[in-house]
Design goal:
Length: 105
Amino acid sequence: MAARAPSHVYVYYRVGADTAAARATIGALMTDVEARTGISGRLLARCDDPSTWMEVYEPVGDARAFARELAALVATHGAMAVALDGKRHVERFAAPAPLARRAQR
């Protein structure tokens, strides 16, 4: 069985305000994510709407374990309170699987 390709985790949400407290909360969250998982994250803001933030974590080898750890740390840091509507949207992407080779005739 082939090993699964690592995934890339994207978490996006809208913030009520870009404040020092909001940045400190997410910064502490991301620092702890790296300390516990070894995966360094990046914080981005949407170019045409800076109230939309995105955390990017890559590469993630064990997506289930990472999701559990991230959820626990979000709760620990109260990161849901930073999101305008209390929602953080998590998406995972990976490289597409190779196409099956056609049998030669």
